[in-house]
Amino acid sequence: MNTQTETQPTSDTAEIAAAFLRVGAAWARHGLSIARSSVQTSARTLEVTADALGRIANRFGDLAKEEPKPGDDVVETTGRAD
After folding, report:
1. What pTM was computed for the model?
2. What pLDDT, on the 0 to 100 scale, is given for residue 50?
3. What is the C-alpha separation between 37 and 41, in angstroms, rounded?
4. How many angstroms separate the first and last alpha carbons of the chain?
5. Please, how many CA atoms are within 13 Å of residue 21, restricted to the half-sphere of its CB?
6. Residue 64 to residue 60: CA distance in whole angstroms
7. Long-range interactions of 71-78: CB distance < 8 A, separation 24+
């Protein structure tokens, strides 16, 4: 009985499976790293946008409190030039 030839394919199969597992794990690690970076960039972008919107809202609040100045009158335009 030759046990050498019976165990050899199993060993090759196990090595191939382990190699595929390592390659798959490397791709998963890479994909998750890219996803993390993308989410962090989106979070920073949203934070900057939120800050800008907050400043604009505060400015509108300040404008609502100000007294009208001469020359700030609203001019009605009807499309007719005089």
Report:
1. 0.55
2. 97
3. 6
4. 112
5. 6
6. 6
7. none
